[in-house]
Design a protein that fits this description.
This protein folds into two domains: 261 residues, no CATH class; 68 residues. 74% of the residues lie in helices and 1% in strands. It is built from 18 helices and two strands. This is Protein SHQ1 homolog. Pfam families: SHQ1. One of its GO terms (molecular function) is unfolded protein binding.
């Protein structure tokens, strides 16, 4: 039994360890287990936690009905009417033996505070798993309750709340202060619903521990006795306990982990990172814009140089073409100047005509002086005179006269 108990509770030798030493060891173990990174991760990335906080267990609706009826009639109603036990729960109650507990005032005070501690752990378990049970359910309840895990004996409600808050921030998967506040509010509602609601929760805890091999020992040590004892408790005692719990305040500064300082430092780091990211984005944009401007200037310079080269080549081509045109025109003029002008009689026209005329006159004189008179000489003289007249006329008239002469012949 001692070996099985060591698997369930954290205190090694409870019989030989005084209460003060157990508390000191518990606080040291919690301080060593606290991880700021895990807490900050759940603090900033709390989507899953916000989702489970929206879950409403059965006591939320029962509490609303009770408040509504009390507001209408302004009288207190029997809270047992708002709590319904299932057949399985009734069967659990039948298996319990009838016992009487003789407790002095101090022991009774410890029992009430232990009840609050156990209910807080149970409310956390129901909230994070949204009413479903899993293999971690028994671990969550016993690990978050210092009464079950360290056999702690509290002296004040504030100590109970601080212990529960510290253990929520150290051990389970979801370590968020909002879950501590939610469990606190749920425990208040359960106590306001009366001992029937408290008994229903204790029966559920009893069932959770019964389904887990090492945790069933806690039923024998605590839960079974609580289920029997709560049925004989006076409702006024629970109401007074609930009022004392409501008046107790719990803040992050009470946890002893400097949560507010951690959050403030993390917020500053986030702001610095966001500023660095913004500065990096601006520098990247400036770098891109400068690169774009450089590329645009290079493109414009290359375009202007290509345009300049194109204009130079165009000018060279135009000058070359103009030179070619001028040369061709000069060639044409030269050809026109040098080309022989031939009349219809096969004689050249133009500038060489005078030379031809002179030669003709010389030939005429020589012919007149050397040739004998006759018809042949006369015909030659007529042809020579005709050629001289044609050479003195324009080209068109010469052509026309040639045509007329041919027609006459």
């Amino acid at each position: 039994l001692q070996d099985e108990l060591s698997d369930v509770i954290d205190v090694k030798d409870p019989d030989q360890t005084p209460v003060d030493e157990r508390r000191r060891k518990r606080l040291a173990a919690e301080a060593a287990k606290f991880e700021p990174d895990h807490y900050l991760a759940d603090f900033f990335e709390d989507e899953a936690i916000q989702h489970v906080l929206k879950y409403k267990p059965w006591w939320v609706d029962a509490h609303k009905k009770m408040i509504a009826l009390q507001g209408e009639s302004r009288q207190e109603h029997d809270t047992r009417t708002f709590v319904v036990f299932s057949e399985e729960e009734k069967e659990q109650l039948r298996k319990f033996t009838n016992k009487s507990y003789l407790l002095d005032k101090r022991s009774r005070h410890h029992v009430y505070l232990g009840l609050i501690d156990i209910l807080l752990a149970y409310c956390y378990e129901v909230c994070v798993n949204e009413g479903d049970k899993n293999v971690e359910s028994s671990w969550n309840v016993r690990k978050l309750s210092a009464t079950l895990c360290w056999l702690e004996s509290f002296t004040s409600i504030h100590d109970v709340l601080v212990s529960f808050g510290r253990r929520v921030l150290c051990y389970p998967l979801h370590r968020h202060f909002g879950l501590v506040t939610r469990a606190f509010n749920d425990t208040v509602m359960i106590l306001q619903l009366g001992k029937a609601a408290v008994l229903k929760c204790l029966l559920d805890i009893h069932k959770i521990f019964m389904e887990n091999d090492p945790a069933y020992i806690l039923n024998d040590l605590f839960i079974t006795d609580y289920c029997i004892w709560i049925q004989k408790t006076k409702s006024k005692k629970l109401a007074a306990l609930c009022e004392s719990l409501q008046k107790t305040t719990l803040a992050k500064s009470h946890m002893g982990f400097e949560l507010e300082e951690l959050e403030a430092a993390a917020v500053l780091v986030q702001e610095e990172e966001s500023m660095l990211k913004a500065a990096g984005t601006v520098s990247k944009q400036q770098l891109l814009s400068s690169e774009l401007e450089t590329s645009d200037s290079e493109e414009s310079s290359s375009t202007s140089s290509s345009e300049t080269e194109g204009s130079d080549s165009d000018e060279r081509e135009s000058s070359t073409s103009e030179d070619g045109k001028i040369n061709s025109l000069q060639g044409r003029l030269q050809e026109e100047r040098t080309a022989p002008l031939i009349d219809c009689n096969g004689l050249r026209q133009g500038t060489n005509t005078s030379t031809f005329d002179i030669s003709d006159e010389k030939s005429k004189v020589s012919l007149q002086s050397t040739s004998a008179p006759g018809k042949l000489i006369e015909e030659l003289e007529k042809q020579m005179h005709t050629a001289i007249r044609l050479s003195e006329q324009p080209e068109g008239l010469a052509t026309t006269s040639c045509i007329l002469q041919e027609q006459e012949e």
